[in-house]
Amino acid sequence: MHPQFIASLHIRYYSFFLLAGFFAGYLLLRWRLKQDGIEGRHADNLALILILVCLFGAKFFNRLFYQPSVTSVWEALKFWKTGGLVFYGGLIFGIISVFLYSAIMRVALTQLADAFAPSLALGLAFGRVGCYMAGCCWGDVCAGPEQLACITNAKIRYELHTFPALSGPDFPLAVSFPRNSYPYKQHLALGLISTRAPRSLPVHPVQLYEAVFCLLLCLLLSKAFPRRKHPGDIFCLFVMAYAAFRFGLEFLRSANPLNYWGMSISQIISLILLSACMALFIARRVLSCWNAKRIESGSANSLPEKSSTTKH
Nearest 5°: CA angle at 63, between 114 and 261? Predict the structure, then answer.
C-alpha cells in the first residue's frame, strides 16, 4: 500500500489510477466507435458527461448504503461530504445518461452500449489497482481459528472469514497492510491485533483479483466484438460476466457488511443485473429464432405451385 503517488503535489495513487482508467477507457471507446461507424465526437461528449455523472452516482450510492450517519436520500445527495465511491452507483447512473444521450442525439443505444463494454472493463481494472494502493475494498482475513477466537459474534466472524478453507494462515496470495490502513483499523477495532502491531493480519488482495479478471474480460469482449450476432450482446456479456464474478468475490471481501439477507448491497445489485441481462439475452434469441422461422415459413408458402399439363 502506497497511497501517495506524488506527495509534494498531494496526488494520491487512487486518484491517479482512477483518472488513468477513465482516460484509457475513453481512448478505447473512441477507437471502437469509429470501428463501428459512429463519429468519435460522441465519445468526446459522453466522456465529459460521464466523468461527472458517474462520480456523482458512485458517491451517492456510497453515502446511501455505506454511511450509517446518512438516514435519507436527501442526505445521500450531499455528495460533497464524506464517503468513497461505489462502482455500481456509477454504472447505473452512467447507463441512464447514455440512454438519454442516445435518445437525444439519435445514436443507436445498442451500438453505444457494446462499444462501452470493453472500456468499462479496462477502466475498472485500473480502478481496482488504485483501490489496492489506497488500501480500501480489502478482503477476508487469512488466519487460523485461534487468531479469530476473540470474535464471538457469528455475523462478524462470517464477514471476516467466510470460507475458512480458502482463507487459511498459509494462503500464498495473502497480503498485509501497514499501520493506519483501513484493514489495520478494522482488525485493531475487533481486537485481532494490538496497538503495537506494525501491520494488519494477512488478507485476500481481492482488489487485484478483480483487476486481473476485468483485464481478461476486456480482452475477451474485444475479441468477441466482431463476431457478435446482435447489437447489445457485448454489453449484456459484460454485465453478466462481471455481475456473476462480483457476486462471488463479495464473499471474500470484509469491507462490505452483509446486511441484506446475508448478502451485501453489491451482491443484491449483481443478482438484479445478472437476472435482467440473462432474461434480455434469452428473450432476444427466442425472438430472433421465431422471426427466422416465420420468414422461412412465409417464403415456403409464397413459392409458386407447379403447373400441371394435360396431353390431348
Answer: 80
